[in-house]
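Q: My labmate handed me this sequence with no annotations at all. I'd like to see what the chain might look like in three dimensions before we decide whether it's worth expressing. Could you predict it?
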Amino acid sequence: MSRHMSKPLNRSFPKGVSPAVSVFLGVLLVGTILSLHWITVPILTGGSLRKAILWAKVSENLSTGNGFLQSCTNGNIILTCPKNYTTNFETEESSVEACPEYFRWIHEDLRPWKKMGITRDVIESSKPKADFRLVVVKGIVYVEKYRRVFQTRDVFTIWGILQLLKLYPGKLADLDIMFACDDMPLVQKSEYQRWKAGVPPPLFHYCKDDRTLDIVFPDWTFWGWPEVNVKPWVSLKKELEEGNNMTAWIEREPYAYWKGNTRTGIGRRDLFKCNPWHPHDWYARIFHQDWARESKQGFKGSSLASQCKHRYKIFIEGNSWSVSQKYILACDSMTLLVSPRYYDIITRSLLPLTHYWPIRENAKCKSLKFAVNWGNNHQEEAQKIGKAGTKFIQDNLKLSQVYEYMFHVLNEYAKLLRYQPTVPPDAVQVCSETMACHADGLEKIFMMESIVMAHATRRPCTLPPSYDPSELQSFLKRKNELIKQVEVWEETGNVVEERLKNLTKTESYRV
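A: Here is what I predict for the chain of 511 residues:
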């Protein structure tokens, strides 16, 4: 899933008195004050009475639950952050649980600044590329926005960081980060490899590739994507698990399935050609997702949990990386991964022939047909790959682990700062109260659903050490060899089964 609408939403944060509160919010606040149990006002996005009732219930619980989301006041229509936030708490001394292996990439992403550190001038040099600046001082979050962002990417990214501070109050170091929310990574490695090129600007982003230096951070959809009705990760992950149980793998359609926006990226337009056209059947079923029409129809045909009905699911990038990767891997189908250029927090640790089957970018249709043919003739092995991909997501991408990743990447980054962060003159304080009280529709519902309601009871998992250079090079070489081996099998039309078993031994893949 990638960009599908051209007009971004304008989001601003309150500074003093807010704009006029919407009619919906007014009704909601009155309902909360009167402790009503049901609200029958349709939500703006989707117009669903069920969603309105859901919001009423959640709002009622939050207004009295441990004070985490204090009631929005409507006396003078002033919504400000409370002054009695918990800024510290005690947990067990340490966590005995090790973080997942993909956390090791944090060290690699921060390596460009290990030697010289990050000065205030270096931070300022990131401003032309950044969409917003986020500063944490003594547990309080301040944001300075530079430009409008597509849809609510910035809103839910900031929301996620606010929830992190609620989960670990007082445990996150003071921060000063620049963040970009567009599709493409922006800090080109080549510009900083020249003699006396200077220190590259540290820029947080959702993805990067081998040619860029952006610092990878979890994408906004973990807290919801209201514009396309993608729910927060906790509930969606559960729905995907339930969807897996609806149709046994052996009873699923024996084809490769993909549904998405074919207008984002040349590769996706090219993939559409792999649909069956007489006289060729590439064993692929490709569908275009018209998000404008889907929105008008209440998103009845875009449920991700209902798309686990094929034995094979295709992942292909859009303009850059795509947030759909985690949804596709979580489907129990064997993932057919079209050679990716970009990677998010988990991509670099996914392993060919263990978590997915690699598909050639320059010969998609032929490659897809070979993979489907092989899987249908080796169903046990194909199911094993599909289940391994799903297990990776279920075991290593719980929302608690996403927060732990955020905690470690931000704290490791903070260690590199060579100055004490201060609040920028044009920044405004933000908190869950000011963000949620100004939201409406699905945006508000998803915030209420994903809000952190209690402190963590233990410290985050233990961050694993960085890679030894030789270990990392060995892993990357091994991964490339596996992909090349599949290409050889495609060319010869034959998979050497004994070779496949040897290649996929678990002990060969611990990175």
